[in-house]
Design goal:
- The complex is a heterodimer of chains A (139) and B (250).
- Chain A has a single domain, classed as Response regulator (Rossmann fold), CATH 3.40.50.2300.
- In chain A, 52% of the residues lie in helices and 18% in strands.
- Chain A has 6 helices and 5 strands.
- In chain A, helix 5 packs across helix 6.
- The longest helix of chain A is centred in the C-terminal third of the chain and has 18 residues.
- The two termini of chain A are 16 Å apart.
- Chain B contains 7 helices and 16 strands.
- Chain B has a 5-stranded parallel beta sheet, sandwiched between helices.
- In chain B, helix 1 links the parallel strand 1 and strand 2.
- In chain B, helix 2 packs parallel to helix 3.
- With 250 residues, chain B is of the alpha/beta class.
- Classes of the chains: A alpha/beta (139), B alpha/beta (250).
Chain lengths: 139, 250
């Protein structure tokens, strides 16, 4: 058995205070937070240069359509799993979120364990889909 | 993909009042609840007879088995996706629950909107995985890199050097790759493999065979078959000329 490396996570969030809090919680849970980005252009550059395993996106990060567009690029072009965070409970918005095919959705406010569940179930799905195992094997 | 029937959900929960409440909510959301079991043992029987699309599993159950144990058996035997319902969750329980590879966790007490979202997301992921499984079978079992192929073998991508390949044989929709040491069975058609192999070394000698020219040890007098080590490979009539020509070139 190969030892699993620590999953690298990128956070896309406009409010630094929230992002820092999320990042702290993720670090405590043993994940490697590779950065926090507040603009979509920067985010894609970060991803190109230092490929994360998972991207956490707060849907309120940008205008919703912009956040969803970036999420689709990350999911479809980079093939990196996305987890959405949102305080918005609007049904239509959730429909668009689902259509982007994220790996998990975490409703705000959330606790540390909700983050952990979101990330861990995402890693399980990635392993089942060959994203996580291939990553170890081939890179 | 359009669903014609409501997704079928099985509830496994020891508290009948909670179970009834959840199944009412699920029905309102348009899902079909195929049953409620309070014991894991019974749930396994239900699944055997009437396979649901998803299982909502409480971790604490009446009966000998807990929800995690039941979910692990389900993963192994039936591969029906599971979502855990949990009220308390210390870290040890959580780590154990993860081994059953659940699609999500729902904390009790929960709100209807949370239940709805988690289910939507899970069914979306299930659909994506089923789609990509089909695509994987077509493309991802093999990928080429200069002098080697990566072949999906027992859930791993295994490196096979092109110079080690003797020949590839079609077997209906499957394909076998023979190397000196091993044989790999792949669930992709031969033409998918052929397209990954360099045409200067690999030649289609027959509808069902692609051979490595460098590995040919002998060819029969009238060019009906060739020998690669102890394997006899037929040559199609219309390929004879091409094969002989290519052999002379080497």
């Amino acid at each position: 058995m190969l030892r699993q490396p620590t999953p690298k996570i990128l956070i896309l969030e406009s409010q630094m205070i929230i992002a820092a809090d999320v990042s702290l919680q993720l670090s405590k849970l043993g994940y490697d937070v590779i950065g926090i980005n507040t603009h979509s252009g920067e985010a894609l550059k970060t991803i190109e240069n230092n490929r994360p395993d998972i991207v956490l996106i707060n849907i309120e990060w940008q205008v919703e359509t912009e956040a969803l567009r970036t999420a689709r690029i990350i999911l479809e072009t980079f093939r990196i799993p996305v987890i959405f965070l949102s305080a918005n409970t609007d049904k239509e918005l959730f429909k668009s979120i689902i259509e982007a095919r994220p790996y998990a959705f975490i409703a705000k406010p959330f606790e540390k364990k909700d983050l952990q569940r979101g990330v861990e179930t995402t890693l399980k799905r990635m392993a089942a889909e060959g994203l996580w195992a291939n990553h170890i094997k081939l890179v | 993909m359009e669903k014609t029937t409501a997704p079928k959900i099985l509830m496994v929960e020891d508290d009948m009042i909670i179970a009834a409440d959840i199944s009412m909510q699920l029905t309102k959301l348009g899902y079909e609840v195929v049953g409620i079991n309070t014991r894991g043992e019974d749930a396994l029987k239900t699944i055997e007879n009437n396979r649901p699309d998803l299982i909502l599993m409480d971790i604490i159950l009446s009966g000998k088995m807990n929800g995690i144990e039941a979910a692990r058996i389900i993963l192994e035997k039936f591969q029906v996706p599971v979502i855990f319902l949990t009220s308390n969750s210390d870290d040890a329980t959580f780590q154990q629950a993860l081994t059953a590879k659940p699609y999500a966790f729902i904390s009790k007490p929960f709100q209807k909107s949370g239940l709805e979202r988690t289910l939507q997301l899970a069914f979306q992921r299930i659909a994506v995985e089923q789609e990509s499984e089909t695509v994987n079978e077509l493309n991802d079992h093999v990928s080429a890199m200069e002098d080697r192929l990566f072949i999906r073998h027992k859930n791993q991508m295994v490196k096979v050097l092109l110079s080690d390949i003797l020949y590839a044989e079609a077997e209906r929709t499957y394909c076998k790759i023979y190397t000196e040491k091993q044989t790999y069975l792949l669930s992709v058609p031969l033409r998918n493999i052929e397209s990954q192999l360099p045409s200067d070394t690999f030649v289609r000698v027959h509808r069902s065979y692609v051979v490595n020219l460098h590995k040919i040890d002998a060819i029969s007098e009238n060019h009906e078959y060739l020998m690669i080590q102890s394997h006899q490979v037929p040559i199609a009539r219309r390929s004879k000329e091409e094969v002989v020509k290519r052999l002379k070139m080497i």
